[in-house]
Automatic annotation (TrEMBL), chain A:
The keyword Oxidoreductase does not apply. Part of the dynactin complex that activates the molecular motor dynein for ultra-processive transport along microtubules. It comes from Carassius auratus (Goldfish). Keywords: ATP-binding, Cytoplasm, Cytoskeleton, Hydrolase, Nucleotide-binding. This is Actin-related protein 10. InterPro entries: Actin, ATPase_NBD. It catalyses: ATP + H2O = ADP + phosphate + H(+). It comes from the Eukaryota. Subunit of dynactin, a multiprotein complex part of a tripartite complex with dynein and a adapter, such as BICDL1, BICD2 or HOOK3. The dynactin complex is built around ACTR1A/ACTB filament and consists of an actin-related filament composed of a shoulder domain, a pointed end and a barbed end. Its length is defined by its flexible shoulder domain. The soulder is composed of 2 DCTN1 subunits, 4 DCTN2 and 2 DCTN3. The 4 DCNT2 (via N-terminus) bind the ACTR1A filament and act as molecular rulers to determine the length. The pointed end is important for binding dynein-dynactin cargo adapters. One of its GO terms (molecular function) is ATP binding. One of its GO terms (cellular component) is cytoskeleton. Belongs to the actin family.
Automatic annotation (TrEMBL), chain B:
Coiled coil: none annotated. This is Dynactin subunit 4. The keyword Hydrolase does not apply. Belongs to the dynactin subunit 4 family. It comes from Carassius auratus.
Length: 417, 467
């Protein structure tokens, strides 16, 4: 943190930067090198024993409002320890976030917490800011989905987005079903018991922990062999030797034997091509095909991978090899002339890269105000501008209220005074 | 019987943005607006910071500098318990005479719960008890600061352009050189297109039109753009065959406690300073007066300002419920407590037909029609054994008993539904003397302030019908 920050001399206070993800929320202050806290996006209520997820798109507005209010209250008063009224807010979010969620979130911030302004920053664009370059092909492997969005010269090429619902959630589901089918449990009463007989289902945070600590992504050759062995019904393909089993202790009394074959095969689902021949790697190539021809070379040589799921050991290496092998396939060989792929390493861990970009942007106090939605604007119009909605009135900073609107067409010879 | 004392049985209606039904013990009373306030309709503010283990107050400037972390206390990176400093004696050579050795104290951190010590991660023992341990610094700090400086320069440029454009448009009478035509041309072929920047809702374009190639005279901060790598390191060969030592691998929760490093191995888990807690003060949104302000000292639980509802509004509590039967009248015994020191007059009214607040009641209720008088709260009364009779004439049908500032009274309940819980609602009207209001200077003889009448909507849940 620069030295003058602590003295509080001049300028406004540092903005609050929040990256509200489906699984984890990263929160902190602008201008810092990392988030202060990474906490799960859920709240505990006295009613239900299970925690309630914050980022839900299908619940009604009132319920979502109260959940978000409680969550943001926790963020401010337990983790950030600042007054909401003093500081601007930068929210890093996915471009595909539903408008209803965005509106409810901004209502919580403006009406209940009375923040001075809110800026919704797209996560892909923010991660490019951490590198000092202008164009990149950004892939966000998160919890609910993997979303690819190219950024060219600082502008997202919105028409070329690609997404797959392959993310942490899908991996957890697959891992849970594999554990229930194949793994045995040791308890006081006996050894070698099958999982469903002892506990009905393994809680998701335990499955997540098993994934983080024991699973990994094999390299291309090994991964291909594992996939062949799985889909090969007559058993002619040999599966490569599985890694050793792991004895995982569950709540102090039970030991779960995680089979070695699960450890390397669960991540293969990200790279398996489904019926439509889509996998995470094809997303990148499909995006490139959709982009304008002259942008492709720049984009393919500037790949940026962010998101928590990409932190699995071996993920990046495998992804790069997959892309390089897929680009030789007939589907892409003629469509894409560029064959060179390069990957960036941002100055933060992949799950915090988007947050860091938001923090860098939030530190630019000169323009943060003009680019944010201020509380006055929100109180006047009652809604926030959205990229998918063309009927939003312009913010007041662009033209003074009371004067005529500026002409919409810029003509060389203007007949107006 | 203790279930009758549960706070959720008797709720008061709070008229905020959203109508909420909250027990009186969880409400605040703004005596300037003369209204009840719940936690939802007040604004919360951070009052003071303190460390939860050493209970030391930290001024907010220092808290900001230390990133809201205590300077002396540490958290165990494995189990998040507070670390304690332990001392051992190690032989060390004397500074004057290298041949002789003397015992010196060496300090290390240890967790009393999971037995983790600072020696496990390779941190050397320190010779001072506190202040010796440093948290490791993020290696990317330099690069990030350079990026921020570079972007700040671009942002300054954008701000100048914006201000210049604002200024240019404001002047209606311009010299010939700057005709409308010229301005349009400049705008059209100038720095980037303005169409993107006008709509702040559009996905924001990151400062792209302002490259440093346009020769400005100030010293420019250049930055080398990040280099993309051709190859990524693969997993080591023995990764596939190496057995996993589970205690050596960090859990996700342990990793996320250190967002800058997120180490995968337990031997890289460094302890962090303990995060502070804060004391909160509450403020009424309408009149901006403080409703609750805690003491500055972390060890004190008192409040400087404490405008809680139980000290201003008479509280209704359920004392006993008889068997409730469908469409049969039964008497429920309630108590009413007077929290203030002067005599309070309380009258109860049933809710009228079509009252918009009355949505939950499932039974008809008949409340006493006469006004109830409550004696003031006398702090010394509990020590006075021979309490003099208070001289109130009570109707025995209405008032069951009277004890200093509390009375017990009956209401008649007729459940209207055959099943489900019985809920009744009524209005409570009492007089409130606002001691906080300034005494008007014109009326000098008035010792007591004016009484205003406040009405509250109270709901009681009396439980299920008797089978």
């Amino acid at each position: 943190m620069p030295l003058f920050e602590g003295l509080g001399s001049g300028g406004e206070k540092t903005a609050v930067v929040i990256d509200l993800g489906a699984a984890y929320t990263k929160c902190g202050f602008a201008g810092e090198t990392g988030p202060r806290f990474i906490i799960p996006s859920e709240i505990k209520r006295s009613g239900s024993p299970e925690a309630v997820r914050v980022v839900q798109y299908n619940i009604n507005t009132e319920e979502l409002y109260s959940i978000l209010k409680e969550f943001v209250h926790l963020l401010y008063f337990r983790h950030l320890l600042v007054n909401p009224r003093d500081r601007r807010v930068v929210i890093v979010e996915s471009i595909l976030c539903p408008s209803h969620f965005r509106e409810t979130l901004s209502r919580v911030f403006f009406k209940h917490f009375e923040v001075p302004s809110v800026l919704f920053a797209p996560s892909h664009l923010m991660s490019v800011m951490t590198l000092g370059i202008q164009s990149a092909l950004v892939m966000d492997c998160g919890y609910t989905e993997t979303l690819v969005l190219p950024i060219y010269e600082g502008i997202p090429i919105l028409s070329a987005w690609e997404a797959l619902p392959m993310g942490g959630k899908a991996i957890h589901r697959e891992l849970h079903s594999l554990l229930s089918e194949q793994c045995t449990l040791d308890t006081d009463s006996g050894t070698g018991l099958s999982l469903p007989t002892v506990i009905s289902s393994v809680p998701e945070d335990v499955v997540e922990d098993i994934k983080v600590r024991t699973c990994f992504v094999s390299d291309l050759q090994r991964g291909m062999k594992i996939q062949e062995a799985r889909f090969n019904l007559d058993g002619s393909a040999e599966r490569p030797a599985p890694p050793p089993d792991v004895e995982y202790p569950l709540d102090g009394q039970k030991i779960l034997h995680v089979k070695g074959s699960i450890r390397d095969s669960v991540a293969e689902m990200l790279f398996e091509q489904d019926n439509e021949e889509k996998s995470i790697a094809t997303l990148l190539l499909d995006t490139l095909v959709k982009c304008p021809i002259d942008t492709r070379k720049v984009l393919s040589e500037n790949l940026v991978i962010i998101g928590g799921t990409s932190m699995l050991p071996g993920f990046l290496h495998r992804l790069l090899s997959e892309i390089r092998s897929l680009v030789e396939k007939p589907k892409y060989r003629d469509a894409l002339a560029t064959k060179s792929f390069r990957i960036h390493s941002p100055p933060a861990k992949p799950n915090c890269t988007a947050w860091l970009g938001g923090a860098i942007f939030g530190a630019l106090q000169d323009i943060l105000g003009s680019r944010s939605v201020s509380r006055d604007y929100y109180n006047q119009t009652g809604r926030i501008p959205d990229w998918c909605c063309l009927s939003t009135p312009l913010p007041d900073s662009v033209y003074e209220a009371g004067k005529n609107q500026p002409p919409l067409m810029k003509r060389a010879f203007s007949t107006e005074k | 019987m203790a279930t009758l004392l549960q706070p959720e049985k008797v709720v008061y209606l709070v008229r905020g943005e959203k109508k909420a039904r909250v027990p009186l013990s969880q409400l605040y009373f703004c005596r300037y607006c003369s209204e009840l306030r719940s936690l939802e309709c007040v604004s919360h503010e951070v009052d003071s910071h303190f460390c939860p283990s050493c209970l030391e107050n930290m001024p907010s400037a220092e808290a900001k500098l230390k990133k809201n972390r205590c300077a002396n206390c540490f958290d165990c990176p494995c189990c998040m318990h507070t670390l304690s400093t332990r001392a051992t004696n190690i032989p060390a050579p004397l500074p004057d005479d290298p041949t002789k050795t003397t015992m010196k104290k060496a300090y290390y951190l240890a967790c009393g719960f999971c037995r983790w010590t600072s020696r496990d991660v390779g941190m050397a023992d320190k010779s001072v008890a506190s202040g010796g341990w440093q948290e490791p610094e993020n290696p990317c700090t330099q690069r990030i600061n350079k990026l921020i400086e570079y972007y700040q320069q671009l942002a300054q440029r954008e701000k100048l352009e914006r201000d210049r454009k604002k200024l240019a448009r404001r002047r209606p009478f311009m010299p010939q050189a700057f005709s409308q035509h010229t301005i349009h041309v400049v705008e059209k072929y100038g720095l980037g297109t303005r169409l993107q920047r006008q709509r702040s809702g559009a996905p924001i374009s990151a400062l792209y039109g302002l490259s440093l190639k346009e020769g400005e005279d100030q010293k420019e901060i250049t930055i080398e753009s990040a280099q993309a790598l051709d190859e990524v390191e693969p997993l080591p060969e023995d990764y596939y065959t190496r057995p996993v030592n589970l205690p050596e691998v960090t859990t996700l929760r342990q990793r996320l406690l250190q967002p800058d490093f997120q180490p995968a191995g337990a031997s890289q888990l460094h302890p962090r300073h303990k995060h502070l807690l804060m004391k909160r003060s509450l403020r009424c949104r309408k009149c901006e007066h403080n409703l609750s302000k805690p003491e500055f000292n972390p060890t004190s639980i008192k409040f400087k300002i404490q405008l809680v509802a139980v000290s201003y509004i008479p509280e209704v509590r359920i004392m006993s419920i008889p068997n409730l039967r469908h469409l049969k009248e039964s008497q429920v015994l309630l108590t009413l407590t007077n929290p203030v020191e002067n005599i309070t007059h309380v009258s109860l009214y049933t809710c009228e037909e079509g009252d918009p607040d009355d949505i939950n009641s499932t039974a008809k209720v008949l409340v006493p029609s006469k006004e109830l008088v409550l004696a003031g709260k006398d702090a010394a009364a509990e020590y006075d054994e021979l309490a003099e009779p208070q001289g109130f004439q009570d109707d025995p049908d209405v008032v069951a008993f009277r004890k200093s500032n509390k009375i017990g009274f009956f209401i008649k309940v007729i459940p209207q539904r055959e099943e489900g819980d019985v809920t009744v609602a009524f209005k409570l009207r009492h007089d409130f003397r606002n001691l906080a209001a300034p005494i008007r200077p014109t009326e000098e003889g008035e010792a007591t302030s004016e009484a205003i009448w406040l009405t509250h909507h109270v709901e009681l849940s009396l439980g299920p019908l008797a089978t």
